[in-house]
Each structure stands twice: as structure tokens, then as C-alpha cells.
Amino acid sequence: MTSVASSPALLVDISVHGEPFAGSEMVLSDDALAFLGTLTRIFRPRIEDLLERRAARRAELAAGGKLDFLPRTASIRAADWTVAPIPERLLRRAVEITGPVDRRMIINALNSGADVFVADFEDSTSPTWHNLVEGQRNLMEAVRGTIADDDPRGGKRYRLNQRTAALFVRPRGLHLPERHVIVDGKPVPGALFDFGLFF
After folding, report:
1. Which contacts qualify for 146-155: CB closer than 8 Å, 24 or more apart?
2. Mean pLDDT along residues 15-40
3. HSE-CB for 38 with a 13 A CA cutoff
4. Dihedral (C-alpha) 29, 30, 33, 38: value to the nearest 10 degrees?
5. What 3-state class would DSSP assign to 133?
6. Does the pTM exceed 0.85?
7. Fewer beta carbons within 10 Å, N or C terminal of the chain?
8. Distance (Å, whole) CA 73 – CA 168
């Protein structure tokens, strides 16, 4: 199945080559696709450049080059600088859980008593079209507090507790494309797909 959306302001052509299924329209709205197209147009050139530089650096190292800090960043490393304060909700991170983005896992992890749940699109989730889009739908519902699941065999009901773990999302690496979504004739970087839809 292919659908095409276009953002008139940026003339971003985006096509989706994944089969639609119940609930996918919630995630793949016209606005979400236009945002993905815009992100891709802005950031894909930089990602492609970084991946080319990575390959060149790998070749240098394979030929005997040495790892070291970049000379041009010496002033940054030598400077007296700090980062912004950590938000209060994230001051305690003694227990973190990382796991896939399936519905029951998200509910159980957020209810677990852990300080943080990292919803992982990289290592914990098989990157099938259904898993990725359904995972985004699950996260949308989790953020809104509406995520639920019922086990008809065991009769158990899964709902979010009043207090839950802080939710982090880990997108796929920059080197992984999402071939089900095409912008300007090339796949969207998986990291932009994962980040953009969640954002």
C-alpha cells in the first residue's frame, strides 16, 4: 500500500510503503508525515555526511591510524563549562528498565516502580513496520495516560498506575534507514522516523 502526502510550504513529497492497519492512522497523520518530511529534508544531508566520514575514519583506523581527541575541540575540553540542571523528576535514576515498545511491556515497565523506562526502538524492538508504528501508537497512548490492555484468557486488566516511571525513548541509530517511508526518493533515516513520530 502506498500513500503520498505533501507539505505545500516545503514541497516535501513523502510516500509510505507499509500496509495500513487498525490504529496506524493515529500515528501516520498528514501532520506527522509532513513533520517527518521536513525533518528528513533538514537533517538527512548531515546524517549522510556523518556516515561517509565514519566510513572514511574506519578505513584510516584499519590502515593503522590512532584514536585520539580532535585537536579542534581542545578549547572546549579545556574550558570551564556546565550543563543545565537536571529536572527534578530525573534526579533519581537508581533503577532503569529498557525494553521493547509493545503495549503490555510499556504498561508493566511504567508501573514497575523503576525510576525510568527506556522504550527502545533499537535493540529491543524488531524493526518490522507493524512493530514500529504500533509501538508509536502505544507511546502516544502512554503519554496521554490512556494505554490499556486486557488479557481475555487470564482475565487480567492492564492499566497505568497513578505514579509511573519517567519515559525515555531510544530511537534507532543514524545508520539504520526506515525503508517503508520515502522522502525525495530515499528512505527516511530510522532515527528521524522514531524521534519525529514520538515528538
Report:
1. 147/103, 147/106, 147/107, 148/107, 149/103, 149/104, 149/107
2. 95
3. 12
4. -140
5. helix
6. yes
7. N
8. 29
Residue listed under C-alpha cell 507499509: 18
DSSP 8-class letter at 73: G
Report CA 117 to chain centroid distance, whole Å. Answer: 14
What is the C-alpha to C-alpha distance for residues 156 and 107, in angstroms, rounded to an integer?
Answer: 13
CB-based contact 53:29 (threshold 8 Å): no
Cα distance between residue 34 and residue 52, in whole Å: 27
Alpha-carbon span 161 to 92, nearest angstrom: 19
Q: Which three cell numbers stand for residue 40?
A: 528528513
**Residue pair 136/186 in contact by the 8 Å Cβ criterion:** no
Percent of the chain with pLDDT over 70: 94
Strand order in the sheet with 186-189: 3-7, 12-16, 177-183, 186-189
Those residues with Cβ within 8 angstroms of residue 133's Cβ, 6 or more apart along the chain or in another chain: 18, 21, 24, 27, 28
Of the pLDDT bands very low, low, confident and very high (cuts 50, 70, 90), residue 11 is low
174's grid cell = 543514524
| φ, ψ of residue 87 in degrees (nearest 5) | -60, 145
**Amino acid identity of 161?**
N
